[in-house]
Design a protein that fits this description.
By secondary structure, the protein is an alpha+beta fold. It is built from 7 helices and 4 strands, in the order H-H-H-H-H-E-E-E-H-E-H.
């Protein structure tokens, strides 16, 4: 068996039972879904399956990524179908930065590398979780809204976000990348781990109750 086939079959730790091949199919399908959302202003099919073999799969992936990149070069105010109240290309420009950066981290980790996430991009990813995904998880019935609040503090960018209503009972501080990976369930919400160390100040137990909800899909 070739090294290339071995790598396509490598498990992706934080994506269920997916292999690298499955993750490539997923991202390639997302790229085509976004292209449809922008070009046709409608929700497209989410099950675009790519080829199985390495070279064909790579070509299929590149074609979809290039096409999406082309449509996302449009003016950010251009109307588009979106799954949250934005309705423009700017939504997808932001969403695909984070979709692809987190999954790039997944891929690199699956291949035994030690990837890094840009701090400013990661901080905006944290903001996206709070602004877009938390409300969406509630609306879709995937979680109950928090009744108490936790403050997230990115020590490298200075960003701060409140998760939940009212005065925060606790703060969780650390590098933006560590916060983002914790929110996307790639690492624990405290202690050491990918992206750096996260530390609590205040009522950590109450903080866990808030952040242990499925804040992201």
């Amino acid at each position: 068996m070739s090294r290339g086939v071995d790598r396509l079959g490598a498990p992706v730790e934080h994506c269920g039972d997916w292999s690298v091949r499955d993750l490539t199919h997923h991202l390639g399908g997302v790229h085509r879904w976004v292209t449809t959302a922008v070009r046709e202003r409608r929700q497209g099919p989410e099950d675009a399956a790519g080829p199985h073999e390495g070279h064909e799969l790579l070509g299929w992936f590149r074609a979809g990524a290039d096409e999406m990149y082309e449509v996302l070069a449009a003016d950010p105010s251009t109307p588009a179908w979106t799954f949250a109240p934005a309705g423009n290309v700017a939504f997808w420009q932001r969403r695909q930065c984070h979709e692809n950066s987190v999954h790039r981290w997944d891929l690199a980790t699956a291949l035994g590398e030690t990837p890094a996430l840009d701090a400013e991009l990661a901080a905006d990813g944290v903001a996206e979780v709070v602004e877009v995904f938390m409300p969406r998880q509630v609306v879709r019935g995937r979680m109950t809204p928090p009744t108490e609040s936790v403050r997230l503090v990115a020590t490298d960018t200075g960003g701060e976000w409140a998760v939940g209503p009212g005065e925060p009972l606790a703060s969780l501080s650390g590098p933006a990348a560590a916060l983002l990976l914790a929110l996307w369930q790639r690492r624990p919400v405290d202690g050491s781990g990918a992206g750096g160390t996260l530390a609590w100040d205040g009522d950590a137990a109450a903080g866990h109750v808030v952040l242990d909800r499925p804040l992201t899909p």
